[in-house]
Design goal:
The chain is of the alpha+beta class and 156 residues long. Helices cover 32% and strands 35% of the residues.
Length: 156
Amino acid sequence: MAVESKHITTNKKAYHDYFVEETFEAGIELTGTEVKSLRESHTSLRDSFAIVRKGQVWLHNVHIAPYSHGNRANVPVDRVRRLLLHKREIRYLIGKTKESGFTLVPLSMYFTERNFVKVELGLARGKKLYDKRDVIASRDQKRDVERALKERTQNR
């Protein structure tokens, strides 16, 4: 059975800047006006990251715009939000993030079938400049090969 989900936003720079080793699905602790703002898709994951502190995972730099019809119930836009994971997942992430080079990066945010907001969290290792160049070069080579095969099949 396929799970229906309503996509909110993705972190397009994450796959450009990091090698994503593993992904985790985490719930997020939000207020009512933040959820309403997410339904309007007013959010950005650019430059956001997660930290494990005191046995809890915290999401930093996620911009959720104030709800358009909200009043004083609106909360600060860039506040730190808690992510909801199982204890064993948090312990695993503590061990992995203590290793050099690993960081937690949010990859996407979406609504589940039951209307819960979920964050896809990636355990990632940063790319160096030469890694980014290699990825671009291989993508260009693949595109050239596909183009040549397409031209060859059309000429027959």
